[in-house]
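Hey, I'm writing a tutorial for new members on how sequence and structure tokens pair up, and I'd like a real worked example in the thread rather than a made-up one. If someone can provide the structure for the chain below, I'll link this post from the tutorial.
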Amino acid sequence: MTRNIAGKLTDRIGPRPVAVAGLVLTVTGTLAFAWAGPAASEWLLGASLLIRGAGLAPVTIAVGAGTYRDIPIPSVQDASMTARIIQQLGGSLGSAVLAAILAGALASHHAAPALAFDLAFRWAIAFTTAALIPAVLLPAAKAPAAGQGRARPPAAPPTSKTGNHRSLP
């Protein structure tokens, strides 16, 4: 739902503001889970998931656009593979860290597992907030118009009109 809007916004205003706004939405959508107790409203948690998802989509779109924006066309394939590997490793590592936090908290909060989940979601909020640091390093302005960016092939070197050029040995 928000991917189309995020793509258009990223093209218009650049990836940085879109990614930052998406991260703010993601944190906002996670807040209810960080303070949810056993009596938490399912409607509130459902609405929070909707907000969280609406925030994650723009982040994904903006980071992708920012990643490939200034890469020359011949290098896009390598950059795509590298970005995908980093995403997979980061997602796996993040999930493992949050699972370890949750497992440790469950072990220490035997009587109140809700407290363990609250703690894990608070760490998720902290990690998402930390993602604002690289997000502000994304390009702020919109991408150059078609044909004006680095993806354009380099111009041919100038030739001498007088014929006075030296050949290299």
